[in-house]
Write a structure and sequence with these properties.
Structural class: alpha/beta
Helix content: 40-55%
Number of helices: 7
Radius of gyration: 36 Å
Strand order of the largest sheet: 1-2-3-5-4
Order of helices and strands: HEEHHEEEHHHH
Number of strands: 5
């Protein structure tokens, strides 16, 4: 065989080997997949909405709670005794902490939290009084908040104050320390007298002393 034909044959073999290597070691082809079916869109979560009159703005957990109608009734009943909050929309959150009946935020956005299964009127009033403190309308402090809540009205005093020292004769004891209407009226009168013309600290001492004195006559 001539050199010319030998060279041509060598070039053909080399080309075949290179083409085979490209097929073996080249990037694998991606399989063609069928287009996916569009996913069903989940229903949008209900927005945070306010009730009529813009008194309250409930968070999403409250909107889904079966206790919302009762909460609205209790909130409105207590709110009627706080004319200073007229025109203010208060945001209402839901707390499930067993040791807490209510909380309040005194930041830029007025907000309170209440328990769905243990809604207590005095707890709501206590937290609304904190909102008054944030506006400079009442002195600060937990005992002071209890005292000024008592002094405002007896209509929502359904449990004993949370921080003031109140003799047990004024409540039923137990987990909630329920207060009967006659006891609520007495505690309200004592708180109102104590807060008249006194500083917050002096008013607290006055109330607790007068409550001890009144306990003997109340329980007789």
């Amino acid at each position: 065989m001539s050199r010319r034909k030998d060279g041509w044959l060598v070039r053909q073999v080399r080309a075949f080997v290179e083409w085979t290597q490209l097929e073996l070691f080249g990037a694998p082809r991606q399989p063609v997949r069928a287009p996916r079916k569009p996913r069903r869109q989940a229903p949008a979560a209900p927005p945070v909405t306010a009730t009529a009159g813009a008194r309250w703005e409930f968070t999403r957990p409250w909107l889904a709670s079966p206790h919302l109608p009762r909460a609205m009734r209790e909130l409105d009943l207590v709110r009627d005794h706080f004319p200073e909050l007229e025109g203010v929309t208060v945001r209402v959150g839901l707390t499930k902490r067993r040791s807490v009946l209510g909380l309040a935020s005194i930041g830029e956005t007025p907000m309170i939290w209440i328990r769905p299964r243990r809604i207590r009127r005095f707890a709501i009033a206590h937290e609304l009084t904190h909102l008054l403190h944030a506006r400079g309308l009442v002195p600060g402090g937990e005992k002071t908040c209890d005292l000024y809540t008592l002094a405002r009205s007896h209509a929502y005093v359904d449990v004993a104050p949370f921080y003031l020292k109140v003799p047990p004769v004024f409540h039923e004891g137990g987990a909630d320390c329920r207060v009967a209407p006659p006891a609520a009226e007495t505690l309200h009168a004592l708180a109102r007298e104590a807060t008249t013309g006194r500083s917050a600290r002096a008013a607290i001492h006055r109330f607790e002393r007068r409550a001890r004195e009144a306990a003997a006559a109340f329980g007789a």
